[in-house]
TrEMBL record:
One of its GO terms (biological process) is transcription-dependent tethering of RNA polymerase II gene DNA at nuclear periphery. Keywords: Nucleus, Transport. The keyword Nucleus applies. Its main location: nucleus. Residues 1-61, 522-541 are annotated as: Disordered. This is Nucleoporin Nup133/Nup155-like N-terminal domain-containing protein. Residues 87-509 form the Nucleoporin Nup133/Nup155-like N-terminal domain. GO terms for molecular function: structural constituent of nuclear pore. Residues 523-538 have a biased composition (Basic and acidic residues).
Length: 1282
């Protein structure tokens, strides 16, 4: 396919440089040998050898990995944003196997296959008889490569063409799908199955778990002559470990269903897919592609749907993942037919054949993208070509995707999401093997982009930009091998990630979003393959002057100089565009002559002048031609004296006048109204041409002013002969003009300044030059004062350009379209980056020692220039963020950059303001104070507009101006609570709690929001607001919190202190305060609150008593400082053989909730078993029998047992509980428990005791006696022994 245009490499500069005789092994390997150092082409001619790339693979050559740059440069100039990014190499075992295979097959293709699985982020390569599987996202230290031996029975590759793509189909089964967290891609997997299929022989091999036993595999052979599988999908079967269902479609229209298990592979069913109205005769090529309708999401998913692509339809099937694994067809939709509104219309003139090649579904399972190839014949030239396009379909409105019954109510299921996107209008004719080897991937960045993989090993990203398609080709040198597969980097936020490709010999590479946007071009007439096209050379000439299409191929491997693309793509001009532009120019010329515009709008509409938006719109192009008109001649053409000529100003004013006339023409012809409604971007570009013209005129005036000041000595003192020319702006003009002159052949004989003042529409290049070439304009070798002067000149230039543009927009705002979602030119990234580079340099000058030796006037001038530069830079960031928010685009990264640079700039300005507040005498100090107040006022305005809260705080805090602080808090209500929240946070971190609470009296709502994360102070504020019930809740939660939040996370390390957890006494005081607040509030349920607080006080008291009985050691000393949960407290009692502790466990249960009792019934049963173990029941039984004790004497002995006391505590008449009773959870007697329902009882628990067979009567008597005994014991009445 295609890749972007670029400047030629520095080949000419390297050509005359002698090559080193010896190369150190540690250095980066040299690039491809120069052309004159190679053998003549006639000595080793290779048919169809492309002119780009590298020598043939069998030629002596350094390895690809050796040529990958190993040292990364920190310089921004060394990074080309249009190039792919190297991610990692393949594992060492894979490289070793590739080397062994290459030695064995020196004369032929090594037939290496591979792929990537998006869901698991696993990559795989088949090399020889081995399958290698690894995670390309795992860190190098933990990277594990699984090596699987392929059985010899499936290695037969049959008659597969080398351009037919991979020989293998592979599916990854992720058994850990539901066990992993949200970030599944980065977590280590422990259970993954692999299903492998030989496309030609139809043989299958299944590894149930490659991480458990890689030698355990199942194979099956399913040979049928001349029929191959085209697509394979597999899904896990719920509730069956390592079981999966696999579906394979073949070229003869058969759909095969397999059940794979650890014991075997069963071909359960083979069905013939019916397709009415097929355009094909014979079995060749179809069925083509299958894809799951939605990702596997749940182990309980009983059915899954998949989509099947035929030669003219998309069919949807459902497979039952339950017992019978039946297949059922849900719907079908014709995409190639006579109705062009529902898909691709066939039978058009010149159209011979249509091949749907591959299909993918987006992450939201709503959009289906189909790659289509159409064989056409041009009647005029009798030449044949293939048109490649993308068809995007979506469900019609009103269809419930999740309901199968919803499809029965509609005749048509799908509709076009957008018009067919033609990605290559006229490509060379390829054979069917090559066409059927092409694969489609969707889901990567930029959003909406797709990547097409061809069988000969190339990958092309296609992105629809504006009204046209942009193509970016990832094309490696031949000795780097093929691109095996592509996938998408995972993203936690659910957004699309960058494209990532797996190569045969060069590892894994990523294609950044910026590379696609900056490096994409519209396609010329050229093939998708590496063979090139016979028309390619002539097509390249028609792009624009001498600009050649850029290739993201072997240039990405060279570590030499990198160059930024001047443009983001070159518009593909059609005959209709040319006619519309010519017609518009004619009408405008007639308007200038006569002022007549009758019939202009209708004629332009009929010519298609309003069909394109953006820079390709014909109105925008005519406007650009007006402002970029090159003067026929200049009075002088060389030297700085050109600036003094009136010709420059005259030409700019003439352009401005003509541009105003063009706007009048648009208004009178009502084209302005049409553009404002339909092509807002185009109209904005037209108006921005006016902005740039006005800015260029003001730049010209500024330049004259600076020259006058320099000649009269008004500028910085100590100017020397270095400034005899026209200063830094002149140098900048030379650099920008030279760059534009070299990029256009027609301008090569013009002066740099002439080109600069002519190319008005490319004013952004001024800022790009500032970003990249500032060191050439202001070098460190220059005198310090000279550096200051030149920096101030550049700052004044930037401010003039932006302020003039903003003023132009304000004065002509009625001409502009609605601004929602449109980014002004001065808010673009290149403009912001240029100004930030200059501002950073000026900040660096502030740190130099020479700054302290300057006079007050020089310091003030420098500060003033920096201040206004900061102001316009922050305005540019604000506009860029606002536009992204309005377009609902991701703007988190831009916002973080904006905040960081804002704080850096404002803090530096504030530090400089503070430096003025120093003087050697009272008079000087008074003068400096006035200066400081004025500068502080200006800084305050900037910080307030851009929410620079830290600077606002510093201004108020350092001047101890509480009134200003309150005023700013009233005015600023930004995100996250605004300035008020920031002030509260600063006071809290500085431990100024009294000031914080007093200030909160004036801002009660804001302080309440802030203190939600600080309950240690929140309750005080709630008391102040007379919210006693809320204060009670806060105190209650604070008393029971695990970690005391009163010691905040301090931002300033100087305030960092060791966190101390509150003691049990502190918690008791908090609970008492909560109790008081609840009584004061007297809400509707305050009695219930009081009861819960009292219960927590009891549990707290129990913990103190329990810890007194527990033996002291290091562990118990730590427990003494913590609040233990009830379950842990009960378990602590069970850990020690102590009668009192065993009874305390029941007390803890008594003051917990009924739900806690029900959830911890087993723990309660353990407490009863523990209580039974506290006494020797066999000894008690022997004593009563041996001594013949009376019932009264026996009862007295039983009163001392733990069972008696526990029964009295839980079931006695005076038993106290917080909620409910123990009988609701664990009845006392066996007969009161429903045994049939699995119920339990205290008596049933005692039956399991070892002493129960001998002392059963005594044990039951003890619990029964305790259940009726009061505190003083009953003296009368029947004895429980009876």
């Amino acid at each position: 396919m295609f890749s972007p245009g670029t400047k030629k490499s520095n080949f000419s500069s390297r050509k005359d440089r002698p090559l080193p005789k010896h190369s150190s092994p540690g250095n980066t390997s040299p690039a491809t040998p120069l052309l004159e150092n190679r053998k003549p082409a006639t000595e080793n001619y290779v048919p169809d050898r492309p002119s780009t790339g590298t020598p043939a693979p069998w030629a002596p050559r350094l390895s690809v990995r050796a040529r990958i740059p190993t040292v990364k440069s920190d310089k921004v100039d060394d990074v080309d944003p249009t190039q792919p990014v190297y991610v990692e190499e393949v594992p060492q075992v894979v490289r070793d196997e590739q080397a062994n295979l290459l030695q064995k097959r020196l004369s032929g293709d090594t037939s290496i296959s591979g792929g990537m699985d998006k869901g698991t982020s696993l990559a795989w390569i088949i090399c020889g008889s081995k399958l290698f599987v690894w995670s390309y996202l795992a860190p190098a230290a933990s990277k594990k490569c699984i090596v699987l031996e392929l059985p010899s029975s499936i290695l037969e590759d049959g008659d597969i063409s080398k351009n037919s793509g991979s020989t293998w189909l592979l599916c990854v089964l992720d058994w850990d799908h539901n066990a992993l967290g949200t970030n599944k891609a980065l977590q280590q997997r422990t259970s993954v199955g692999v299903l492998l299929c030989n496309k030609k022989t139809r043989a299958l091999v299944y590894w149930p778990n490659i991480y458990f036993d890689s030698s355990d595999f199942i194979t099956t052979l399913n040979k049928q002559q001349r029929i191959s599988y085209n697509s394979l999908i597999a899904s896990a079967i719920p509730d069956k470990k390592c079981f999966c269902i696999a579906l394979a479609c073949s070229s003869n229209g058969q759909l095969c269903k397999f059940i794979c298990s650890p014991t075997g592979i069963e071909c359960q069913e083979t069905i013939a897919v019916s397709s009415q109205g097929s355009q094909l005769i014979g079995p060749r090529g179809y069925l083509r592609s299958m894809v799951w309708h939605a990702p596997y999401s749940s182990e309980k998913e009983s059915k899954r749907r998949f989509l099947l692509l035929t030669d003219h339809e998309i069919q949807c099937f459902s497979v039952d993942l339950g017992s019978n694994f039946s297949l059922s067809k849900i719907w079908s939709h014709e995409i190639v037919g006579n109705d062009g509104d529902v898909g691709i219309q066939k039978g058009l003139a010149g159209q011979k054949k249509i091949w749907p090649l591959d299909m993918q579904v987006d992450n939201n399972r709503k959009v289906m993208t189909v790659l289509v190839a159409t064989f056409c014949k041009d009647r005029a030239t009798s030449s044949s070509y293939i048109e490649y396009s993308l068809l995007t379909m979506q469900y019609k409105s009103g269809i419930d995707v999740s309901s199968e019954s919803s499809y029965l109510l509609h005749d048509k299921i799908l509709e076009k999401r957008s018009p067919i996107e033609v990605i290559i209008p006229k490509a060379r004719v390829e054979d069917e093997d090559f066409l059927f080897s092409m694969r489609l991937k969707v889901g990567g960045k930029p959003s909406g982009s797709s990547i097409v993989l061809s069988g000969d090993g190339t990958a092309t990203v296609t992105h629809h930009w504006g009204n046209t398609s942009r193509l970016y080709k990832f094309d490696l040198p031949y000795d780097a091998g093929k691109v095996l597969d592509a996938s998408v980097f995972p993203s936690d936020d659910g957004e699309d990630g960058a494209w990532v490709v797996l190569t045969e010999k060069a590892g894994v590479w990523a294609i950044p979003e910026k590379a696609v946007l900056l490096g994409g071009v519209e396609p010329p007439e050229r093939s998708l393959s590496r063979k090139g096209s016979s028309k390619e050379e002539s097509t390249n000439v028609s792009f624009a002057g001498n600009i050649a299409p850029r290739r993201a191929s072997s240039e990405a491997w060279d570590s030499g100089d990198r160059h930024r693309a001047v443009f983001t793509g070159i518009a593909h001009r059609t005959a209709q565009d040319e006619e519309s532009e010519a017609l518009l120019s004619q009408f405008f010329h007639e308007f200038l002559q006569s002022g007549d515009v009758n019939g202009t709008l209708n004629k332009l509409q009929n010519s298609g002048a309003f069909e394109r938006d953006g820079e390709t719109n014909v109105f925008a192009r005519v406007s650009k031609s007006i402002v970029d008109t090159l003067a026929k001649h200049w009075t002088t053409t060389r030297g700085a004296e050109i600036l003094a000529l009136s010709a420059v100003s005259t030409q700019l004013l003439d352009k401005q006048q003509k541009h105003k006339k063009f706007l009048q023409f648009l208004a009178l012809s009502k084209c302005h109204e049409e553009l404002s409604a339909r092509q807002r971007k185009s109209l904005q570009i037209i108006m921005e041409h006016g902005e740039k013209l006005a800015a260029m005129i003001q730049l010209r005036e500024l330049q004259n002013l600076i020259r006058q000041q320099t000649s009269t000595g008004v500028a910085f003192t100590n100017s020397n002969s270095l400034n005899d020319l026209s200063g830094s702006i002149w140098d900048l003009i030379q650099l920008v003009g030279d760059k534009a002159r070299q990029n256009t052949v027609l301008l090569m004989d013009r002066d740099n300044a002439e080109v600069f003042y002519s190319k008005v529409s490319e004013l952004e290049e001024v800022f790009h030059c500032l970003e990249r070439k500032l060191s050439l304009i202001i070098s460190e070798e220059m005198p310090f004062t000279f550096q200051l002067q030149r920096a101030c000149e550049l700052s004044s230039m930037c401010v003039t350009l932006l302020n003039t543009s903003i003023n132009y927009k304000d004065e002509n705002h009625m001409w502009y379209p609605s601004p929602e979602g449109l980014t002004p030119w001065y808010c673009q990234a290149v403009v912001r980056s240029g100004m930030w580079t200059l501002a950073s340099f000026m900040l660096h000058l502030l740190t130099e020692n020479e700054m302290g030796h300057l006079g007050i006037s020089s310091k003030l001038e420098f500060h003033s220039q920096l201040e206004v530069l900061v102001k316009v830079l922050l305005e540019a960031y604000s506009g860029a963020v606002r536009a992204k928010v309005e377009r609902e685009e991701e703007h988190g990264g831009l916002l973080e950059e904006y905040w960081h640079r804002r704080d850096t700039l404002l803090d530096s300005l504030y530090q400089q303001v503070k430096s003025f507040n120093q003087g050697s005498s009272e008079v000087v100090e008074e003068q400096n104070k006035e200066i400081t107040e004025k500068l502080s006022y200006n800084l305050l305005a900037i910080a307030k507009r851009h929410e620079g809260y830290q600077t606002l705080w510093n201004l108020c805090f350092d001047h101890n101006d509480l009134e200003l602080l309150r005023s700013l808090m009233h005015d600023s209500m930004g995100p996250k609570g605004g300035f008020s929240n920031f002030v509260f946070k600063q006071m809290y971190n500085n431990k100024q709690f009294s000031k914080l609470m007093r200030l909160g009296e004036e801002f009660p709502e804001e302080l309440a929001i802030f203190l939600k994360d600080h309950p240690d102070l929140l309750w005080l504020h709630e008391v102040f607001l007379h919210q006693s019930s809320s204060a009670s809740e806060t105190l209650h939660a604070l008393a029971l919190s695990d970690v005391d939040s009163s010691i905040s996370e301090v931002v300033d390390p100087t305030f960092l202190e060791a966190k101390t957890e509150p003691t049990l006494a502190d918690r008791r005081r908090l609970l008492n305060l909560s109790k008081i607040a609840a009584v004061a509030g007297k809400s509707g349920h305050y009695e219930t609150k009081l009861k819960r607080i009292e219960a927590d006080l009891r549990i707290l008291k129990l913990q103190q008593e329990i810890l007194k009985l527990v033996p002291e050691d290091e562990e118990t000393q730590e427990l003494a400082q913590k609040l233990l949960p009830p379950a842990d407290l009960i378990q602590l009692c069970l850990n020690y053989q102590n009668k009192q502790l065993s009874l305390y466990a029941f007390d803890v249960f008594a003051w917990t909730s009924l739900s806690f009792l029900r959830c911890n019934t087993s723990l309660l049963e353990e407490c009863w078993k523990n209580a039974a173990n506290q006494d020797d029941w066999e000894a008690i039984n022997q004593t009563t029998v041996a001594k013949g004790l009376t019932d009264e004497e026996t009862l007295e002995i039983l009163k001392e047992t733990a069972l008696f006391q526990a029964s009295r505590r839980c079931y006695g008449p005076e038993a106290e509980t917080y909620e409910g009773g123990f009988e609701q959870v664990l009845p006392l007697r066996q007969e009161s428990s429903d045994i049939s329902m699995g119920g339990s009882s205290v008596e049933g628990i005692l039956m399991q005791h070892r002493s129960f067979p001998d002392a059963d009567k005594l044990m039951v008597t003890a619990i029964m006696l305790g259940s009726v005994a009061a505190e003083g014991m009953l003296e009368d009445g029947p004895s429980p022994m009876e």
